Amino acid sequence: MGARYPISHPKRPFREISLGMASGIDAEARWSDRLREAGLRVTRPRVTVLDLLAELGGHHTAEGLNATLTAAGDSMTRGTVYNVIDDLVRAGLVMQADRGPGTAVYELAGTWHHHFICRECGVMIDVECEIGEKPCVHGDVPGAVVDEAQIILRGVCTSCAAAQ
Ligand SMILES: [Zn+2]
Ligand SMILES: [Zn+2]
């Protein structure tokens, strides 16, 4: 079982995903502009991680991404994966999806959104943000500049509710 953390696209099971590793040139063409626009140099590890997140969809731990790359025969050290994710998050190309305590999960940055987390099975489901960009809530923090409000909605998902 590769998917320790359920991904939010149930129609695309973890095991059936074919990694587009053979199409390295296509992937680079696809991501090089976005990397440069974000102020990052185009490197193969950055392109690979972006491409993998796009391919998989949903939310993934750095560990999980690393395992997938290793299984696909892509030689990247664990440290490289972590560094690459860090760079991509800082540059705004990857979003760290907040799910509270525990291992951080990441996804390709797109339209700003929030997350529902099932208390029973831990599934993480994207929830539309009414504003669609951050910060959608400013709160009232005297003297502070609020630039992000990521909301975690908790409860019981449809399938867990049905099983109860
Ligand atoms: Zn559930
Ligand atoms: Zn998400």
Structure description:
This protein is α+β, with helices and mostly antiparallel strands and about 160 residues long. The protein has two domains: about 15-105, Arc Repressor Mutant, subunit A, CATH 1.10.10.10; about 110-164, Dna Ligase, domain 1, CATH 3.30.1490. The protein is built from five helices and six strands, in the order ααβααβββββα. The strands form two sheets. It has a three-stranded antiparallel sheet with strand order 1-3-2. It has a three-stranded mixed sheet with strand order 5-4-6, with no helix packed on it. It is globular and about 45 Å long. Bound molecules: zinc ion (ZN) (2 copies). One zinc ion binds next to α5.
Give a nutshell description of this structure.
This protein folds into two domains: 14-105, Orthogonal Bundle (Arc Repressor Mutant, subunit A); 111-163, Dna Ligase, domain 1 (2-Layer Sandwich).
Q: What descriptors fit this protein?
A:
164 residues, alpha+beta, Arc Repressor Mutant, subunit A, Dna Ligase, domain 1, 2 domains, three-stranded antiparallel β-sheet, 5 helices, 15% strand, disordered N terminus, binds zinc ion
Taken in chain order, the helices and strands follow as: HHEHHEEEEEH
Superfamily at the CATH H level of the largest domain?
A: Winged helix-like DNA-binding domain superfamily/Winged helix DNA-binding domain
| Helical fraction | 25-40%
CATH class identity of the largest domain? Mainly Alpha
- Structural Rg: 17 Å
Query: If you consult CATH, what is the topology of the largest domain?
Result: Arc Repressor Mutant, subunit A
- Give the total of beta strands: 6
| Number of structural units classed as domains | 2
Name the CATH architecture of the largest domain.
Answer: Orthogonal Bundle
